[in-house]
Each structure stands twice: as structure tokens, then as C-alpha cells.
Amino acid sequence: MAAAVASRLAPPELHAKPGALAPSDLAMSRRRQIQAPISTTPQDVLQPDAHNEHDPHRLPDFDEMGLAAPPHPILYLPPLLSKLPEGYSHYHEPSGRFKPLSTETHLPDIDSVSLSLHKALHKFHPVTDEYAETPYEEAFNWSELELPENAEREWYAVSFRSKRKEGSDGGPLYEADKQAHEEAVRNGGLILYWYGIPHPKTGLNLATCIWQSRAHAIAAHSGPHHISAMRLAAASYERYELRRYRISKVKGERALSVEPYDGGDVGW
């Protein structure tokens, strides 16, 4: 059984075993360069590919069965057609099989390159059933995710490999997960959330989040619902491993590169 959503996003020192990770992310002050919001049109709402049966514009279920034994990997992409910032027109004609959500809060700011990544990630999926024990750079179809050639940017990613203890009580944890995840979405910057299926033999699982910036991830870690879920989950793991990555897109190329995080700011 995989670990709590909120705990997958936690700062390294709160979950990692001693010596496993770099110093606290919380030491960095939050920095966000706000860019002009990008208006979206109906054709911007893409369909998920055949690997993903879950509607990517709907929050995953956080009940006991939904996270303990999901029938297939979950791809969650925050909806593009949420309410835009105050003062911007939001009229659109819904189209496509999956209707976008209209959130209570307004859509967080997003730059044009992150919007291109968001579109490409509708095709995101693992390339092996052994993803829980495969290096992060090799576990997903990164080579198939292409962006405009003139785009240039970096994003911050977090992976969480885990194994739940047998018999651990997940009831309160699942509700805490839901609140923590919604808190992260409201905070802004969450581009992708993906959650796999526990391996049928080993019980190991993998989850990952991609953020517009490291600052966005740090801000989410500090939320009260996240901290609450983290505390509930602390006694639920038999094994856990948090790792951080830098996803890059350089001008002149269409492909992404994925490398272990080596310090400093990432994204905005």
C-alpha cells in the first residue's frame, strides 16, 4: 500500500531516514515571479491516452479502496479551465469527453511553458510495471513528452517510494490525505500528481508530483492540513524514500531532461 498523498509532499527531514537527503527545503524563503495568466480555450482541454482510465480533470478518490487498492494508476492534472484571476474573462464552451472543473478558488497563475508541459503530461505514464523499483529517470515515458522547440524552463519534481505496514489503520489518514491534497491545489503550482499501484508481490509503490517551482512545493509542505496528514502517516510506513529532481527543457530541443536535484532555486 502506498503512503499518504500529503506525506509524499513533505520536506525531506520530516520523512527521510537520517542521512538520506539534503538539508531542509523549509529554510528557503518562498519566491514566486508572477507572470500573466494564460487564457485557455476549449481545444486546450486534452484527452488522456489509453494508459490512463481515470479522468485527469477530476480529483482522485481518497477513500480506503481508492488509495489502498486502486484498479489502475491515477493521473491527476489540475484542471486548466478553472476560474481565471480576477478581472479576466472566463467564458468558454465546454467540449470533449471530460468536462473541466470550475473551482471555488481562482486558477493559479501559470506561464506559457508550464502550460505546454501541462498539455504534454496528459500522455504521462510508466513504461514498466516495475516502476516502484526503477530509477525515476527511466520509470516514465519522458522521451515521449515534447514541448515547443523555443521553450525553455525548469520544474521541480518529487518522488516517493513507499510500503505501508500491514494492518495499519488508514481510515483517518485517507481523509487527511484528501484535505492536504486540496490544500496543495489551492496553494498553486501543482502541475501533475501521479500515484501508482502497489506491486502485487513486494507491496512497494511509487508516487510523484511535478511543481512549477521548488518554492511552490515548500509552501505546500507548510500548510496545516499537510502537517496533520504527515503526522498521521508517520507510523504507517514500513519503508519510505523521498527524492527530488530537476526537470529541464532547453531552447532548441523538444524533449525534457530529468536529473537529481542538486540545490538552488528551481522554476518560479
UniProtKB/TrEMBL annotation:
It comes from the Eukaryota. Residues 1-56 are annotated as: Disordered. SUPFAM superfamilies: Dimeric alpha+beta barrel. PANTHER family: UPF0643 PROTEIN PB2B2.08 (PTHR36986:SF1). This is Uncharacterized protein.
